[in-house]
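S.,

Sequence below, as promised.
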Amino acid sequence: MIDEINTQKTLEKQEEYIELLQDILYIRANNQQPKAMVRTYGCQQNVADSEKMKGMLEKMGCALTEELEEADIIIFNTCAVREHAEDRVFGNVGALKAYKRKKPSLLIGLCGCMMEQKHIADKIYKSFPYVGLVFGTHVIHKFPELIYHSVTTGKRTVERGEDDGLIYEGLPLHRDGSFKGWLPIMYGCDNFCSYCIVPYVRGRERSRKPSVILQEAQQMISAGYKEITLLGQNVNSYGKGLDEPVTFAGLLQNVSSIEGDFWVRFMTSHPKDASKELIDTIAANEKISSHLHLPFQSGSDRILKQMNRHYDKEHYLEIVNYAKSKIPDLSLTSDVIVGFPGETYEDFQQTLDLIREVEFTSLFTFIYSPRVGTPAAKKDDPVPYEEKSKWFAELLKVQEEIAAKRCASMVGKTYRVLIEEQNKNGILSARTQNNIIVELEGSEDLIGTFQYAEVTRARNWILGGRLV
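The prediction came back faster than expected:
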């Protein structure tokens, strides 16, 4: 109860800042409606965070824009999972100097996971003096206050608060999509995989109340959403710290039981917490996607132990085989790290063996990227990057053959699909319930609707078909 009172007081304070900013930002933009741009890097959780900031900016009176030249406020929401993502941010922030020179009143802000790392925040402060606002993931709820301080004092603002373990419900929200939406069910991570920076920048696991999640899901369905994706760093451990005992499988069942025509997806699952109850729930409900993203990272038990993953190859295969036996047309995807410190070619071959045995629909594959502050970053890493790149190419070739075989097996079959977008050539992109893309000819007014499509041709990753 005390926590709820404190969070409510904090949010009421932010509402006061929002009201003050409505006039301040209008005047600052030469007595016209200010425009704000939020650019998101990284995972779906970052996208969900950006939707909150966009909602708050709109309440401040801002119009949202995708054009840098128009913006009076530019926010980059950053990702720290891999070095490549950080390099992209640094490069793009460097390009903002010219915009700041043309428009001195422009407020440039950086937030997100990168900013929760002290060495990164210090680098931004020293190397990019035109960045006026830097804040981390734990203080997004204070976004209006941080902007107010920046624009009224003219001083650079840096805030990297400690994780207070609280969840701030009721923040304004601007959803990017009209028929597909993200629904966070929990925040943070308790797993501390040795290569991963997420627990350090996102904090410990905390779950949203089931009643709040169900209410938000109902609102999305009433608004016409056809696909809802439940988000968490490890959705399988949902329920920790809640007064009422509820598993992720139970929550998934309750969301899918809401009346309406929609699909439910979720990500991401951790193998150590994937239960038979979850598999049975997916199998029993046609609204739940028959797609399971279950990152295995390595097929070597020795490397899995060094990664601190808390499962072995045998356990992973047990989950997968049970899921295959229960869920017709199951689509399995996964994450794989190539070249973890100390990994040998023999270890890597065990990863290939696992890939061949499971026959994944697709894989998200990465060459190991050291993250400052993680245990793995301190390990000896004798295999050169060039050698890891050869392993990586070998893995891609194996998976390409498997994906081509999977796609070929779908030719001649008919699937229910959700039409997602139309490209510049007029081709529609649709997605099956088990998360495979089908390209179709059709009109733009079909976007956001369920249709049936017969698969007529297959490529390595994408299917071609016709509307039935």
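Residues 414-467 form a domain with the OB fold (Dihydrolipoamide Acetyltransferase, E2P) fold (CATH 2.40.50.140).

Coffee later?
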